[in-house]
Design a protein that fits this description.
- The protein is globular and about 55 Å long.
- It starts with a strand and ends with a helix.
- It has one domain.
- The chain contains 7 helices and 2 strands, in the order ββααααααα.
- Strands 1-2 form a two-stranded antiparallel ribbon.
- It has about 240 residues and is mainly alpha-helical.
Length: about 240
């Protein structure tokens, strides 16, 4: 892809900011390693319980706070990209990231999922649905609604954008799909197979796939946001 000006042609690369991506993922790996070490320590009887702050499955853990921090960074980068480019796609994506960050910081889908699950189960008069309890079903309903809102907004932004912006949105779309797989599908599998508070190999693997996967893909989305911003900054410098 290229951007044409009166006397220059600039190549547009769609890629995450390498240094930021490496730094974020390095921290993610460190937090995942601490989680695995804690799980092993509990299984071996060295610890009586998994330290809450190191448990990537828990909302108030360090990993979850770091995820919120990354959402905030990504939103700020996209806000700056919008200021420099005046392309509304980045404002739309920024709003989506703010929504996802608020959900993480306030345990939104868990809180609203309790009410949604209870309402659905009372209406259907059932005690479980495909082996999933009302809390999990409620969370899935809320996440589905958020997914429709986020992917719908991005789809509209993609349709209304020029080819350069469309190409830049594709890696965001792919990373968000991967994030959804970790946060929805692996979450449902985890909830079905593992009793809360259980430690062991299967729980550790599913915890890494679900919560560790979320951490990695949020880092990728953050680095992509800065990649877009720095492309505009570099283009502005060249012009």
């Amino acid at each position: 892809m290229t951007i044409l000006t009166q006397d220059k042609v600039f190549a547009v690369r769609v890629r995450p900011h390498t240094k930021i991506l490496c730094a974020l993922i390095a921290i993610d790996i460190l937090l995942i390693f601490a989680y695995v070490a804690g799980q092993i320590a509990v299984s071996a009887g060295i610890l009586s319980d998994m330290p809450g702050r190191l448990n990537i499955e828990i909302d108030y853990a360090i990993a979850e706070k770091f995820n919120v921090f990354k959402w905030a960074l990504a939103a700020m980068a996209l806000a700056a990209a919008f200021v420099f480019s005046r392309k509304w796609a980045w404002a739309v994506l920024m709003a989506c990231f703010i929504l996802l960050g608020l959900d993480d910081s306030q345990s939104g889908h868990e809180t609203f999922g309790t009410t949604a699950g209870l309402s659905v189960f009372e209406y259907l008069q059932v005690t479980s649905f495909f082996g999933l309890d009302q809390q999990v079903i409620g969370e899935l309903i809320v996440l589905a609604g958020m997914g429709i809102l986020v992917f719908g907004a991005i789809a509209i932004a993609w349709i209304r954008s020029n080819p350069d912006i469309r190409a830049k949105l594709i890696p965001f779309f792919i990373a968000l799909i991967a994030l959804s797989v970790c946060g929805v599908i692996f979450d449902a599998v985890h909830a079905t197979l593992i009793t809360p508070g259980t430690v062991g190999l299967l729980n550790t693997i599913l915890g890494i796939l679900e919560d560790g996967g979320e951490m990695i893909f949020i880092s990728i989305l953050c680095a992509l946001s800065f990649g877009v911003l720095f492309e505009y900054l570099n283009l502005r410098h060249k012009l």
